[in-house]
Write a structure and sequence with these properties.
Elements: H1 3-21, H2 29-41, E1 53-63, H3 65-70, E2 80-89, E3 105-112, E4 118-124, H4 134-145, H5 156-163, H6 166-171, E5 176-177, E6 185-186, E7 191-194, E8 200-209, E9 214-215, H7 217-222, H8 227-238, E10 241-249, E11 269-280, H9 284-290, E12 302-304, H10 309-324
Antiparallel strand pairs: 1-2, 1-11, 2-3, 3-4, 5-9, 6-8, 7-8, 7-12, 8-10, 10-11
Helix pairs in contact: 1-10, 2-4, 2-10, 4-5
């Protein structure tokens, strides 16, 4: 069996196990989401249904002492953990211009542990998500597909936004960075840290750059279509790029199941450690085709919350992976 088949079999096993934890969602929703993405962006063989354009890099993560106090997870033991990182543009078009107006960006991290296991984080530049369930995300995509510029008013998207008033604010919460290295990436889903005594703490991830730099739409429109890809390649060629992984801690009573509702800004934030990126993968296009990042691929010390989107995302990513690696 090929490595791709082995990886797909493993990922599919995670997804079907996740279904047992998330029966409130239609088990076909993952396929429906990928079909809807293809309807919006077209099908592009060999590429992801969403975040199709990207670049793969490598580096290390070294946790802070505070991280080990919050979670017994092996990635927080203070050693240098090798990582694979993928930066991306949202959407299913492989050649989308990096400076497109309103385009969110993504950062996915795969941590490679000493015992051969792995765990993933999948983060986006949105401050919070536009919908709270897989069914709503499918319906949002179908509304987009049914609302071309020539569609009569009110469009299907207009009607969707009327019934989901948080969605436009979520989509407007992102801006174009001057570099993938100068953007903040957020974990929209809540996870549960478990420490060595069994104490549980809900968290949301924040990946913070050394400096945050956004540019306006007029400046972004003047940039080359691949300026973010070209910039991160050049930056890493000159020296390492670093981020700080942080965790926003929920207070008692804060909900964990709805990614459209961020926690108050005054909640405590803990620095979990430093992510250092120092190498661009030579054949990034081939590498990213075979890479699969799953938010629900967890290790002891990190658990899922009651957020249903974690399992929905896992399922959709597995479906997309299977289609680009048939």
């Amino acid at each position: 069996m090929s490595n791709c088949r082995l990886l797909f079999t493993f990922a599919a096993a995670i997804w079907f196990a996740a279904l047992g934890r998330c029966l409130a969602e239609d088990p076909q929703i993952a396929t429906q989401i990928v079909d809807a993405l293809n309807k919006v962006y077209g099908a592009h063989p060999g590429f992801r249904a969403n975040h199709a354009k990207g670049i793969v890099l490598e580096g290390t993560f070294k946790a802070s002492p505070d991280a080990a106090n919050l979670s017994k997870a092996a990635i927080f033991d203070g050693s240098a953990i090798p990582v694979t990182v993928r930066f991306s543009d949202a959407g299913g078009v492989p050649n989308v211009p990096d400076g497109s107006k309103g385009l969110p960006h993504g950062m996915a991290i795969k941590y490679h542990l000493k015992d051969g296991s792995e765990t993933d984080m999948v983060l986006v530049s949105l401050k919070f998500f536009p919908v709270s369930t897989g069914a709503d995300f499918r319906d949002f995509l179908l509304a987009v597909a049914a609302s071309p510029p020539t569609a009569p008013k009110p469009t299907q998207l207009d009607l969707f936004f009327k019934s989901h008033p948080i969605a436009p604010s979520a989509l407007a919460s992102t801006s174009t960075p001057d570099s993938f290295a100068d953007e903040q990436y957020n974990g929209i889903d809540a996870f549960i840290f478990v420490d060595k005594t069994g104490k549980r703490q809900p968290v949301r991830y924040m990946m913070m750059p050394e400096k945050l730099v956004h540019i306006d739409s007029e400046e972004a429109a003047k940039k080359s279509p691949d300026f973010l890809i070209d910039d991160i390649t050049a930056r890493v060629g000159r020296g390492p790029v670093t981020f700080h992984l942080k965790a926003q801690l929920a207070a008692p009573g804060d909900q964990t199941k709805d990614p459209t509702r961020p926690w108050p800004a005054d909640r405590k934030v803990v620095d979990l450690g430093v992510l250092t990126i120092d190498k661009v993968v030579a054949d990034s296009l081939a590498a990213q085709k075979k890479l699969l990042f799953l938010p629900g691929a967890l290790i002891p010390g990190i658990e899922e919350s009651d957020d249903p989107l974690i399992d929905v995302r896992d399922g959709a990513y597995v479906v997309s992976y299977g289609r680009r690696n048939p």
